[in-house]
Design goal:
Number of domains: 2
Helix content: 40-55%
Mean pLDDT: 97
Oligomer: single chain
Structural class: alpha/beta
Largest sheet: 6 strands, parallel
Low-confidence stretches: none
Radius of gyration: 21 Å
Shape: globular
Number of helices: 15
Strand order of the largest sheet: 1-8-5-4-2-3
């Protein structure tokens, strides 16, 4: 088992009818009672969440900031930072899914940063967020796990880039996770959430066998659960048992537990982010596009784990090579069963020179050795992308 250190200070308030605790928790972190309510489109209004929050927080000074995109945009978030400074707020409450929560994480760090915050995301030497506003979240879409971790991904469409950030400053102080919100979601978003949680788990599991037996079984439990409930929750989003298990799987897939003591990959995410930056393809769908082709490209390095995955998750039997290859096929078939297309060409026709373009981007950023074995090169990236078209 690899060495590890873990801390997760986020208070998870899980279940229905819990928002009455919101004033108590906000007051713990907002001495001025000046709170920025950050959200995306109109869904928080349509489902009545915004009205509920405003009623529970009627004794607070609330400033609304809506319009955070599905892939949170740097320039939009900077407007939120300016508003927060102007109104002298001391706490941000994120109402939304992973994109809104990610955007708020960035805003809390940018609030105190003296220079151009994009240089932090570019990881320029000496540029770091050293202080951040406290924030909490009310989750409206189970998918990314952002409600229980300290990571975020921010987009910048004017230069077609998507960059990751994070660190101990960016854990939510609390997150309300109410599974009843799943009943308000379109099937597309539910499918995205299932795939997002599934691939988050694979990035920390589908590497090579380790002696961390608990982590292996925990990852497999999430995968098995998502396979079992995925199609059902799409057909019956109001079923509390199904919705609560989806929400808890998504949180557990990226709250830090699965990475303890094991190697991790994340190359699928790195490549997928480029597809979102270039074509605005939903994040989860880029993962469904790239993951099967990456596993094929890295078959020799991942065969042992692919075989274990095939046996334990899909109950496959036979020759190890055959099981490993069928595990990839079953994974892609699962994505497709949720209505997720797994080819770039099913989202855009602008695929000319795409593999070379992404390869060049990776080289320019110095991303020359990726994956759990540092065996994925820019040439491999080009091949993976080409095979995904």
């Amino acid at each position: 088992m690899l060495n590890f250190e873990i801390i997760n200070p986020t208070r998870i308030v899980f279940g229905k009818d819990q928002l009455q605790r919101l004033p108590e928790l906000c007051a713990e972190f907002s001495s001025s009672k000046k709170i920025l309510l950050a959200y995306g489109g109109g869904s928080v209004k349509t489902i009545g969440l915004l009205a509920k929050v405003k009623e529970y927080l009627k004794d607070f000074d609330l400033i609304e900031f809506g319009g955070i995109e599905a892939n949170p945009q740097f320039h939009t978030l900077m407007k939120g930072v300016s508003l927060a400074k102007e109104k002298e707020i001391d706490f941000i409450l994120a109402l939304g899914g992973g994109s809104v929560i990610d955007g708020v994480k960035f805003m809390t760090g940018a609030f105190y940063y003296k220079g151009d915050p994009w240089e932090v995301l570019e990881r320029q030497e000496g540029c770091v967020f050293e202080k951040a506003l406290p924030f909490g979240s009310i989750l409206t879409l189970p998918a990314t796990g952002s409600e229980a971790n300290s990571g975020a991904v921010i987009s910048r469409s004017d230069i077609q880039e998507k960059r990751a950030m994070g660190g101990p400053l960016f854990f939510p102080k609390f997150s309300f996770c109410d599974p009843t919100v799943v009943s308000t979601l379109p099937k597309r978003q539910i499918a995205n959430g299932i795939v997002d949680a599934y691939v988050h788990t694979l990035e920390q599991y589908l590497t090579y066998p380790t002696d961390n037996l608990l982590q292996e079984r925990q990852a497999e439990a999430i995968l098995n659960t998502l396979i079992e409930i995925g199609p059902q929750v799409m057909d019956n989003p109001g079923d509390y048992k199904l919705a609560s298990n989806l929400m808890w799987c998504a949180t557990h897939a990226l709250n830090g537990n699965l990475r303890c003591g094991v190697p991790t990959d994340w190359a699928t995410h790195m490549i997928g982010h480029e597809l979102t930056a270039l074509f605005e393809i939903d994040h989860a769908r880029t993962l469904a596009i790239i993951a099967p082709r990456l596993y094929e490209n890295q078959f020799a390095n991942k065969k042992d784990k692919l075989t274990q995955y095939g046996k334990r998750v899909f109950s496959l039997s036979g020759d190890d090579d055959d099981i490993a290859r069928k595990a990839i096929q079953h994974t892609e078939a699962f994505f497709q069963s949720l209505g997720i297309a797994t080819k770039v060409s099913e989202y855009t026709k602008e695929t000319a020179n795409l593999s070379d373009k992404i390869k060049k981007t990776f080289i320019e950023r110095g991303w020359l050795a990726m994956g759990e074995r540092q065996a994925i090169t820019p040439d491999d990236v080009a091949q993976i992308v080409q095979n995904s078209i």
